[in-house]
Predict the structure.
Amino acid sequence: MSRVYIDRYTGSIERTDVYRVAVTLKDGTRLTGLEPRRLFPAFDADRFFTLVDEDEHEVAFVRDPEELDDASAEALRACFAESYFVPVVTRVNKYEFAGGVWTFHVETDRGPVTFRITNRLYNIKNYGRRFLLRDTDDNRYEIPDWTALDAHSKRLLFSFL
């Protein structure tokens, strides 16, 4: 079977597990055990999704959740909320440097967090106003718009970079 484009006219998506969905096409064909993945998580996280089977083969493609029925769009969002859990940094309280490791103490939308970064060039990515950070445990954090941070946080962030 070739790749299928899913929108409200061609099929529907339902969540079947924490990270899996099933697609029901308008002709009644049911595709199960599919894992949704973002194709451009850093640049266009809210559009362009692929649905892959257990063998990592792309089975279906979604251009934009706005093109899906409401229940299908919510099924995708629910899967991504679990698999792409990325706390948003709302304040940088302080950072420390010792032994080649930067330790950050920040506030996030999920509460206070302390994390470590070893390679700032590799583990901090800048996309205009947006920053993505990856710590030593491979957890990810996001600053969606550094200009929205308070003056203290901006000063610390840019003294580090």
About this structure: The chain has two domains: 4-83, 89-160. DSSP finds three helices and twelve strands in the chain.
